[in-house]
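Lesson 9: reading folded outputs for more than one chain in a single document. The general rule is that every protein is listed as its sequence immediately followed by its structure tokens, and records are never interleaved. Here is the first one.
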Amino acid sequence: MFKNYFILAWRNVVRHRLYATINVLGLALGMTCCLLIFLWVEDEKSVDNFGSAGKDLYTVYETVSADGKIDGSYSTPSRYDSGQTTWYLETVKSAIPEIQYAACYTTGYELPWGFPETLQVGDKTLKLDGARAGEDFFQLFHFPLLEGNAATILKDMYGIALSRTTAVALFGSPRAAMGKPIHFQNRVNFTVSGVFEDLPANSSIHFDFLNNWQAQKRLLAWSGNDMKAYVQLEPGADREKVEALMTQFLHTAMGPTKGVNIQLGLQRVSDQYLYNVFSNGRPATGRIEYVRIFSGVAIFILLIACINFMNLATARSVKRAKEVGLRKVVGSSRGQLIGQFFGESLLFAFLAMVLSLALVFVLLPAFNHFTGKSIVLPFERPGFWLILSGIVWVTGIVAGSYPALYLSSLQPVRILKGVLKFTRGSIIFRKGLTTFQFVLSIVLLIATIVITRQTDYVQHTNLGYNRENLLYIRVEGALSSMPNYLLFKQRVSGMPGVAMVDRSSETPHSMTFDIADAINWEGKPKDANVGFEPASVGFDFVRLMNLSIVKGRDFSRQNATDSTDAFIVNEEAVKEMGMKDPIGKWISAWDKKGHIVGVLKDYHTRSLRQTIRPLVLDVKEGLDFGVLMVKTRPGQTKQALASLATVYKQLNPNLAFAYQFVDEEYQKMYNSELTISKLSVLFATLAILISCLGLLGLVLFAAEQRTREIGIRKVLGASLSQIITLFSLDFLKLVLVAFLIAGPLGWYFMNSWLHDFAYRISLSWWIFVVAGAGVTAMALLTVSYQAIKAALGNPVTALRSE
């Protein structure tokens, strides 16, 4: 029986090639969207997902309540005292039996963190990304070890673990690397204690080498919250109980904290990537929202494609009705007819899946390029084939349900008499399906416009400083001494391409360092607890960054005391300190007390998701850490880099020269938004295209039903434009209804999305008008083509049977 169904279905496909092509193409486009989103979602969910090995593995996060505000982050406090750094949770596993393993993790060797570092073996020098961790790290994260033991690989303070690629590059093989010395940052020797397999692409933790964090001479911050902490609980341990015990342990270790309450929580490591945005101090949302949104988009686009199939099947219902009537007369039951129609829809779904797999295979490289992924089609996984089969069956059944149930219910007597009328309910149902398609299309288009504009806004908005032709170099090696820094600045300043050089303890676009108790000021209330962003800079920093001074003056070498007791603050700092006339007021930061000499116009030092923070600048040209800020002359960046590299290698012959452009590093902060913007454009375009195919089906149906009406109107003198208008108005009404529904929905969803940004675009009325007009134009083109074709038909042919 089933064989006969598919034979009949195949004959219909061959007999009606145009109809079959439109159907298969529509379903294939929907399936392609669905598969691409499915692969992207699976890749997102796979990040830090270690399966059963990670079910008891948690990231520690902190919730900080201070000054009426609640903040949260995946970090834990540390303390810096007299050259030694204490990680408060270092001994937590010995105090809490439910914790099996615990380790801290951080990037970088000294301020600022996260820069590549130099490894040297003989004449081989590499600049690589490194990290520090506690000795339990490889007990927590089961990254495959090629050499060494997970329990001891980080036990030695001066041991270092290398990735396979790093070991091969420096020593030729993982085995040859074991026990060999490595000169690190031209200041200390480490010994290779292990080699791990290159970290997988789906790990949010990335490093080329790893060593024990206690080997660092300078680390993190004074009462800062810069380390991540990971713990593995004993099987069956009560997570909430452990959170309470860890908080109690932290409070005992830290002692009294004035006006600050810190609570610790645990989040599964497998969830930290997706839940990276905090609300009320707890991980609440983040990339999981995009996963949910695009999962819904995949379902709805596939549903749109199924609706198209229904509409196209209905458009051919008059021709298929006679076939149904004849089959019933010769003895076919309704069940057999339903089986035949489902057989056709399943065949179409199967053909569409074959075409879809081909499209995905062709499009996947481009898809990976603009999403930054390395997705491959997992043909080797049985689960993938089950999913494909499920999509085919669900699509075939959903798409074929209406045609099968409707056409099989037709009465043969009425059909063979030529009396085939559709009830008002069935007409409204089909129009409702088409309206639903356009509601989704308009919402997607609104979302695309908003996301694209917000992404463009955060990438190109005026940050309060000029980031063009601006780069920075990490202070390291010989440049850590003030005489060498001044020598570097003197030599480079007169070389081709270089406009200005200065220094800063922080990078300009990522001042995530936030302190409160180390800042005091004149008139400070006893219970005030304001978080400040501190930075120590050179005398030319304000000019180099092109910052605006709204009150007072800039730092000046002409004032002998500026390097010892002068501060510049921003407008937000003045507001938080409650000062009406800040110039001349005393302020203290760390162990330095001085007076405010200037007030800067607020400028952004973090992502635009966050509000501008109070900023305090002082002059410290003798710092042994930070970055060198370099302003290049327009069009002479290449010459400037050559000049910088020459002088750098003269002062740091054993360190590799590396630099970062501020504008490029800033844009990396919004890679997620840029990816989502591209995906939105792609899927909105496909959704509109598929919806127009559905509208084409409805137009074909209407033209088939109104052939005689059009013929009569033409005989009675109706013009071509009148007939086209008659057709178009009926269908444009559906788009208008869809717009009235989609507008409020689009505003609600995108207003919620924009709330994640402290600085954002406004939802202007024209966004909704453009989205509606765009979809209307596409619909009008679709309707007009078939309307013109119907209007140009010979009325004699249409009226011949009358």
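And here is the second record, again sequence then tokens.
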Amino acid sequence: MTDSLLHDLRLAVRALRRSPGFTAAAALTLALGIGATTAVFGIVDAVLLRPLPYPAPDRLVRLYQGDRHSGTTREGFSTPDFLDLRERSRTIEGAAAFRTRPMALGGEEAERVSATHTSHELFPLLGASPLLGRAYDAAEDSPGGEPVVVLGERLWRRRFGADPAILGRTVLLDDRAHVVVGVLPADFAFPSAETDLWVPLRAAPTSAPRGVHDLGVVARLAPGATLDGARREIATIAAELEAEHPADNEGRDFLAVPLRDALVGDVRPRLLLLLGATTLVLLVACANVAHLLLARATTRSREVAVRTALGATRGRLARQFTVEALVLALLGGTLGVGLAGWALDLLVGLVPGGVPRIEAAAIDGRVLAVVATTLTAVGLVFGLAPAVARREVGLHATLREAGAPGLSASRRRVRARGALVVAEIALAVTLVGGASLLIRSFARLLDVDPGFRAENVVKLDFQLPASRYPQSFSDFPEFPEIRAFHGELLRRVATIPGVSAAAIAVNHPVDPGWTTSFRLEGQTEAEAATQPETSIRIVSPDYFRTVGVPLLRGRLLEPRDDGAAPRVVVVNAAFARRHLSGVDPIGRRIELFGRDHEIVGVVGDERFDGLGAEPPPAVYPPLAQMPLAAGSLLVLAAGRPEAVVPQVRAIFRELDPQLAVFGVEALEETLAGSIAAPRFTALLLGLFAALALALAVVGVHGVLGYTVAQRSREIGIRLALGASRARVTRDVVAEGLRLAALGLALGLAGTLALGHALRGMLFGIGAADPATLLGVAALLGAVATAASWLPARRAAKVDPMTALRGD
């Protein structure tokens, strides 16, 4: 048996070498489909399919709070709510809270690092095994505990040269000495791969108000507990806390989501869409190769007939065809995997930030096993198809056909090739239609007015450490050190030549920020408790001029609105429409954080929740009356905004040499980054659609060229009997358009189905957008006509005498 297979293998290699054009065309076509699919599957496998790198990952859940009044379902926990839930739950075996914010790592030059403040339970909960030392314990995680830090491996190697003596050394974080107690490996990427270090959270009932929801919570279900059971229990606990603390927990729900789903989030549908698109490209490529194989089977009809006459059985022929197809699939697959390695690196570089575990994407054994299975299936189908096709024609008919190919082309083979072309076109149209929907949606997104001006504005983020800028909740808002820093920073930046305006915002215009409860003048506490929270945007007075937010009524914030002045706020138009419809907002009073404020102005709406979302209601208190340590400096330059960055950095160093400045980029880049996900999806789906369409065009051209070659004698007779060459051209083009029309009809149906599935990704257009459908139909008509033209011209040039002599 082995010798027989080796013999078949040698025959297959010899046969493919005798047809280098066919072999190259088929292998390259397969390589394109395999390469695209393998690259995308490598990402899908890393992000969606591989188990989470934690013990018993199926029992891990992410916990959220929701607000029934605003409809939100993915808010953070407050510290008191987390502690109460952890104490009361019986279906949860362990829970850990965390909060991520940047810290300044001191040294010769301060560096901003991504720090996660987490309770000590996180490390045993997720099975963290330090490379060096240990994780911090409960005593160090208690209020007043020794300041310690666990470093990430990447930071340890980059900043400390992988020094094994790092344990016990002190490092400055936000100007406070922390003792290094451990180093975690790079593959412990929680809550994200960007995390540089971990420090104790030190959560206590009094460490933050119950109304501040800024904690992430991850938990492990107890043995025997189910997700549904945990959801019922935490819902009961949420109801108990709502009754016990109505002022803070009115309308608050607790929710549990599998940790995998929480990490993947909105990434899943986009990745599955791209995987589906590349699969369609692979199917189109396979249909093209099937064309080539059927055409080649026709040219080998005489060979097969002779071998049959000499005693070769159908099984023997089928095995030979199958071995040839498997060798061809192996060749195309090898080229495709090589192409996939290059494409994967390109895709990983294009993927927007925030995709979990993207750094683990690779063409590894798991991916190669799937590729090998796919190639085997493709090879078997390709190998059996010609053998089955030969069963349709008898030996004598085959010999006659081989002797006079121009007289009787097999109608069955012509129909089979036509069906393959129709399928190719349908798949390509589906892809082109879906890509067109996403591209038009993205174009609509680009046309949206964000409500602010990003041109010529640069942002620089900073975080003032509590060690030098005291910021205790009990003293809020009396933070004189923070106020002084803000004032001096703005004063100095305003003196830089080329600076037109500068402002500080706790959240820059592309940052959604946070929300808070409020009470309007005349509302009861019960009425205020049932209304959705509002966004709060703490800014310095020149913010609106710096980013071009227009004043609609009243006045803007002014320098006189300082800590000693009466408390005032500006609201946006969305707030006025929703909460003050029919009344004059100016002069109305609003309670925020337990203090009354007067509304002195109404400004335009900013889309800080994203260009695809409606502007939410927002309140703008002056920074001097609510000074917070974190913020973004926004600088409007007369020319290129990057030109003023060195001088602004110098001012930061003069004011505080140990302060780390980060997130430095033009606001236009920040805005562009906010729509990176839809841009990435539209771009890749468009590329895959173009590839599928190109392959479909090749298929139309190929099947018509084959038909013309088979019907050359018939065409010659028609020309000899007086048919015009223009008529022959029209007939061939009409045949191509007939196939295209059938494929278009099926493809438009596929586009409608795909558009329905894409509804959550579309903005400003419907799933059955008429302009998209008409555009796709026009595009296909144009390319189908072009693909049909060359075979039609060849048909019109047939010499009647040559064709008749060929008989």
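What the second record shows: DSSP finds 25 helices and 23 strands in the chain.
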